[in-house]
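Hi P.,

Sorry for the delay on this. The queue was packed all week, but I finally got your sequence through. Input first:
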Amino acid sequence: MRVTARCFARLRELSADRCELELAGGATVEEAWRSLAARFPGLAPHRPYVRPARNGVYTAWDAELADGDVIAFLPPVSGGATSHLADEPIDVGALERAVATSGHGAVVTFVGRARDRSDDGRPVVELEYEVYPEMAESVLAEIASEAEARWGVAAAVQHRHGIVPLGEAAVAIVTAAPHRDEAYAANRFIIEAIKERLPIWKRERFVDGSEWRRAGA
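Then the structure:
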């Protein structure tokens, strides 16, 4: 069977952006890595730090492959996607500079701001975000890395917690790619995944009380 292998960041520099691998039926992700490392020996020492993804979703090394699969080998997140929580104002320009290079013809930036009205029209006087940090950091990194693996973009994500003054950014997402379709799709994926998976909650304070809800809900 034939599968496509993709590499990013340092791994791409040591091998190739993508290449085709011919494998026996029932081959595993681990066997795909070995085949790739045989072609590009500089990859081998990085195996303990690599995380594999199959068709845009993280997978196990012993997972069996099927013909036509796309396997991504991802270096540590600190060397790839930029994602973190913050308790201070978000520097959107710094996020853009972290991922955009001369090879990226499209840079898509989404900024979610603290607004002064709730969905039901009540005036909001203050917003507060509470997060489970030990879990949220890894979830945010996982979401950004999934987007990189699936669309071949560079991604930077930052989400604030604590008190966020009205009008300031609560979340910022930057995706950079050679073409706009991938950059748009990856950016939309990240914000929707944050709404669904990130353990963070928003308290809207009103003159007469407050309400908790999932951030982005």
